[in-house]
Specification:
The structure holds 2 protein chains of 2 kinds. Chain A is mainly beta. Chain A contains no helices and 9 strands. In chain A, the strands form 2 sheets. A 6-stranded antiparallel β-sheet of chain A has the order 1-9-8-4-3-2, with no helix packed on it. In chain A, β6 and β7 form a beta hairpin. Chain B has one domain: Metal-dependent hydrolases (TIM Barrel, Alpha-Beta Barrel). In chain B, α8 runs parallel beside α9 and α10 packs parallel to α12. Classes of the chains: A mainly beta, B alpha/beta. At the A-B interface, β6 of A face α4 of B. The structure holds FE2/S2 (inorganic) cluster. The site of FE2/S2 (inorganic) cluster has 10 residues of chain A, from loops.
Chain lengths: 121, 393
């Protein structure tokens, strides 16, 4: 397993993505709320560059006790990675697709050492 | 002779000022001493559109607020009948970015460069290009607008695009609300370079069986030009679809509904018998609707054949003679159903691959290539061979 340097800590702003290419593999490293997440930049749907789209929070429907519809809210603690090709969504935390648990982005470990951020490939 | 004072106002540089615009009104008020009256205006307006960004901040539902700010107001904005949130408030990121894409300076239209870029990337040799918002033009109540825009678009496409790029072809827009204009369109542009057929945009409220269209069909049959039904949605124009309050619903139903409707009328009025050599191609409704209509019509036909005496065989037999584009192929987790659909429509010879690029539900050639139940010949036919034959490419 190789450690690939992504950036110096603090170099990537929050809610940005850096695409790291090592060999034939592209990895999207996402910084969100101070944490780093790394996923293969390859969507299990049709092969789109999954990490190059937007990140959007999940959305929840608000239904009252009498079952009437009230509205919607963003679930800020459940950020999604949205593939730019067809908008398949994946939980940022796990890489698992939001509709089908069998679909997932390949996850990589991210470590920080001596002020530098590495992804393990 | 008295010298009159002369003043000049240059309107090309003068800034707009409401008091200037209403100077004559002020004069009337002064002459009539209106300032001595209490005057109450019980119906005055402002353009809230100009403050919409601020107003959107007052929307209490946060998801709706985000959507309103993204879509804006008026035109195609959040309050419009179409409620255009097709790109999922920015989730489909590539469309807005593609508009800014730089292309090398060339002596032909930018669309050619952009189109060839994605064609090369996807590995497409020849494409048949369709418009986007014009797919809904058939629902305009102004027939003269449909005819004028259709002619303008067709002429523009022929002169600016088709004439310069042999890899791009087109099936020209037929202004279906005006049968005579359809005939003229074929007469005028049927022989133009790159024209491989004519298109009815499916959201239309005219029956395809109307006698007024027989000349159009006959002309296409005689010229061996296919008649294409390209589906779309008509959220604002269709009362049934107005019951949908989500774009996903109107898209899933609308894109199939209009082709289901026209196909059913096409069969029940025995138009395949009247125009046996006219090829019809049904575009962008996916595939799942076809077995549904086949089964439905066959079942009814067995009980009510006296009502449709023009038919000489089962509705599904006619439908198996027609052609279908593949996208958006309903491939989610049901291979068996898909395989059955391919068999039912004789996909090997009748199915034509389509990407629908750059729209958000585009399919790559791999959607066909990767299907395990197709052999090499079938893959080659569906990806290009069938289209080559149908459109004489
Ligand atoms: S390729 Fe990612 S959503 Fe289709």
């Amino acid at each position: 397993m190789a450690e690939v340097l992504v950036c110096r800590n603090g170099e990537m702003k929050d809610d940005t993505v850096r695409i790291v290419k090592t060999g034939d593999v592209e990895i999207g490293v996402i910084r969100h709320e101070g944490k780093y997440y790394a996923y293969r930049n390859l969507c299990p749907h049709m092969g789109g560059p999954a990490c190059e789209g937007v990140r959007m929070p999940g959305i929840e429907e608000l239904i009252a006790e009498d079952k009437t519809y009230i509205g919607q809210r963003f679930v800020m603690e459940d950020m999604h990675i949205v593939c730019p090709w067809h908008s398949y969504e994946f939980h940022l935390e796990t890489g698992i697709n939001t509709c089908d648990k069998a679909l997932r982005l390949q996850k990589f470990n991210v470590t920080e050492k001596n002020g530098e951020v590495f992804v393990s490939v | 002779m008295d010298t009159l004072e002369t003043r000049y106002r240059d309107l090309s540089v003068e800034e707009f000022d409401t008091r200037t615009l209403l100077a004559n009104a002020r004069q009337q008020a002064v002459q009539r001493k209106l300032d001595d009256f209490l005057i109450v205006d019980v119906d005055a307006h402002h353009y809230e559109t100009e403050s919409f960004a601020e107003i959107a901040d007052f929307i209490e539902d946060p998801v709706m607020r985000y959507e309103a700010k993204y879509q804006g107001y008026g035109g195609q904005g959040i309050s419009s009948q179409r409620g255009n949130y097709q790109n999922l408030t920015g989730r489909v990121a590539r469309q807005s970015q593609a508009r800014k894409e730089k292309t090398p300076a060339a002596d032909h239209h930018r669309d050619i460069e952009v189109t060839k870029k994605w064609m090369d990337a996807i590995s497409i040799d020849i494409c048949c290009m369709f418009p986007t918002p014009m797919l809904g033009l058939g629902t305009t109540p102004r027939v003269d607008v449909e005819v004028s825009l259709a002619r303008a678009y067709n002429r523009w496409l022929i002169e600016k695009v088709l004439a310069h790029e042999p890899r791009i072809k087109a099936s020209l827009y037929l202004p279906f609300n005006d049968p005579a204009a359809c005939v003229k369109m074929i007469e005028d542009f049927g022989d133009a370079k790159g024209v491989i057929g004519f298109t009815v945009t499916s959201p239309h409220y005219k029956g395809v069986y109307d006698n007024a269209y027989m000349k159009t069909y006959a002309m296409l049959e005689e010229r061996n030009l296919p008649l294409i039904f390209h589906s779309a949605i008509a959220w604002g124009g269709d009362q049934h679809l107005q019951l949908c309050n989500r774009f996903m619903a109107v898209h899933a139903l609308g894109f199939t509904w209009f082709n289901i409707l026209h196909m059913t009328n096409w069969i029940c009025n025995a138009l395949p018998e009247r125009f046996p050599k006219l090829k019809t191609v049904w575009i962008e409704s996916g595939l799942a609707w076809i077995p549904f209509v086949m089964q439905r019509l066959d079942n009814e036909y067995m009980m009510r054949s006296s009502e449709v005496p023009g038919l000489k065989k089962l509705p599904s037999d006619y439908m198996r003679d027609m052609y279908y584009s593949s996208q958006p192929m309903e491939a989610v987790k049901n291979r068996e159903m898909l395989e059955c659909t391919f068999k039912m429509i004789k996909a090997d010879t009748q199915l034509l691959y389509s990407s629908d690029y750059p729209h958000w539900d585009m399919d790559l050639p791999s959607t066909i290539y990767d299907l395990p139940f197709l052999d090499e010949t079938a893959k080659r036919n569906i990806l290009g061979g069938n289209a080559k034959r149908v459109f004489n490419l």
